Amino acid sequence: MESTDDISHRDYTRLSELIYNECGIKMPPAKKAMLVARLQKRLRSLDMKSFGDYIDYLFAPDGIKDELVRMIDLITTNKTDFFREPDHFDYLLQWVLPEWSQKHGGCGKKLMLWSAGCSTGEEPYTLAMVLNEFAVSCPGFDYQILATDISTRVLEKAEQAVYDEERIAPVPSSLRHKYLLRSKDKSRGLVRVVPGLREKVRFRRLNFMDGNFGMREPMDIIFCRNVIIYFDQSTQERLLNKFYTHLTKDGFIFMGHSETLNGLDVSLVMVHPTVYRKITDKPLAVINT
Fold first, then answer.
1. Which H or E run includes 91?
2. pLDDT tens digits, residue range 140-150?
3. Is residue 182 annotated as a catalytic residue, yes or no?
4. Which of 16, 54, 220, 281 has its CA 20 to 30 A from that of 101?
């Protein structure tokens, strides 16, 4: 008899197909143990005796409505750090921002940056620190960061902007003193991002499988790092072409150092290791492919 310690082949197939269809993430048999481990606590909280019961609940009309987001929260991977892959921030500061500022400085335009797959917020707050530092040396420069993730759980933490002290080790000491506030209760070992920086980041939930991302204006820069590795090649290509349509002319996409566009039909040119630039306009119809 199936229990909360195991899941039948049929139920695992149904669940993995649902996850792929809803959020594009592949769940091959090799990930079965990981999925079972992550969902066991949820089954216990629902007082369910088996994965069969959980699958029946999940596929019922009320289950899809109430449980799908919770389930996605549990199965998504959310590894992140402040100043992760620091070479990207150096390139942003030394090349991308000066060029953008020279082109748009003085016209009142804000630089629009999207942290796609922002997890618990370390990446967008790192970007806010870097952009704020650039603004100090470039009067008139302004920016706005959109940070999105499929997981409501990590977005709640990101909006709180509270982190354990050991998490901020990669942040240079000069930026720590400027942008991070220590808890009044030193024994708690917590810091919080300063209000001025939090105001520059807007968080919202977004599923990359949605047909419409709901963007009101194009993005100058998209950071989507260590995200597409969880998708198959056709989903990667479709997603990157959607990103393409949301980029301004000559806009940039930053990807993770373990990711590549090799074999993908996307009109982006590499200008720096895992940094790509839009090179031509495509018909807007590509949004719906």
1. helix 87-91
2. 899 999 999 98
3. no
4. 281
Q: Domains, the chain, ranges and CATH?
A: 9-75 (1.10.155.10), 87-288 (3.40.50.150)
Active site residue: 5, 6, 10, 38, which one? 38
Contacts by 244-248 with C-beta closer than 8 Å and gap 24+? 244/268, 244/278, 244/282, 244/286, 245/282, 245/284, 245/286, 245/287, 246/114, 246/213, 246/215, 246/218, 246/219, 246/222, 247/218, 247/219, 247/220, 247/222, 247/278, 248/112, 248/218, 248/219, 248/220, 248/278
> What confidence score (pLDDT) does residue 282 get?
47
Choice among 149, 198, 220, 225 that is catalytic: 149
Is 90 annotated in the active site? Answer: no
Within a 10 A sphere around the Cβ of 206, how many other Cβ atoms? 20
